[in-house]
Specification:
Strand content: 35-45%
Radius of gyration: 19 Å
Number of helices: 3
Structural class: alpha+beta
Helix content: 10-25%
Shape: globular
Number of strands: 13
Length: 245
């Protein structure tokens, strides 16, 4: 599953960029109608957050309208094997992750104080084109989004919303100017800083890369379609009921 976020800070050391990102908020749905629960699940959420540490930062350098830019997850399903293949490059590593509360604007346009996932990442300067693209995007009004990839083994539906109850982070992918974040307006890079080595969607649609967890993609799609049909039938039944005077 892909969930989007945005880089909020960038620092520029001699050998790498350090990015600080507000990845997402908890307890409210994003544009994909997906929720990461926090209240009542604090310990589990903090454990899951730490699975992001030491996982790669992915990106795909592109030229868009003649300018340095980035792509997206660049993934597709291999029709022969049924597996999801990615065509991004590993350009850095996540070094830190934590959860803290702050005021955000949800995708519904509501201002709320919610627990949010933050992270720090290092982008290696051995990829100068990617570094140039990150700097340019960070300085634009849209900023630079990132979209983490997670593997989920357990989820449930609550009032039509998909709530992830057991998951771990696989990577974080930096997104280009043509991708809209699922947590638009909230998930942003908040700083960019530079250090010496001695001492950064359309919402990116949910992708069924949970096949790696032993869950068959077609079975999952069938399960979700059956659930939607049941919800539709329930809604139609309720609509047909005529209240008594």
């Amino acid at each position: 599953i892909f969930m989007s976020s945005t880089v909020t800070e960038i620092a520029e050391p001699e050998t790498y960029l350090q990015l600080t990102s507000r990845m997402c908020y908890y307890d409210e749905c994003n544009l994909n109608d997906v929720i990461l629960p926090y209240e009542g699940h604090e310990e589990q959420a903090n454990i899951a957050a730490q699975t992001l540490v030491n996982m790669p930062v992915q990106a795909k350098y592109k030229k868009i309208d003649g300018k340095d830019d980035l792509g997206s997850h660049e993934c597709k399903k291999n029709e022969d094997t049924g597996e999801i293949e990615f065509f991004t490059d590993s350009v850095g590593v996540n070094t830190k992750a934590w959860i803290e509360s702050c005021e955000v604007t949800t995708v519904k346009g509501e201002k709320k104080v919610l627990p949010c996932l933050f992270s720090e990442k290092r982008i290696w300067k051995r990829y100068p084109n990617t570094v140039n693209a990150i700097k340019r995007l960070f300085e634009t009004n849209g900023g630079i989004n990132s979209s983490w990839e997670i593997a989920t083994s357990e989820y449930e539906y609550r009032k039509g919303k998909k709530v992830l109850t057991n998951y771990e982070f696989l990577s974080d992918c930096l997104l280009g100017s043509n991708v809209v974040a699922a947590y638009q307006g909230t998930s942003k890079v908040i700083s960019l800083s530079e250090f010496n080595e001695q001492e950064l969607l359309v919402a990116e649609a949910l992708s069924q890369d949970i096949a790696s967890n032993g869950i068959d993609i077609k079975n999952q799609e069938k399960e979700e379609n059956e659930l939607k049909n049941k919800e539709k039938e329930t809604s139609e039944v309720k609509t047909d009921v005529t209240p008594e005077n």
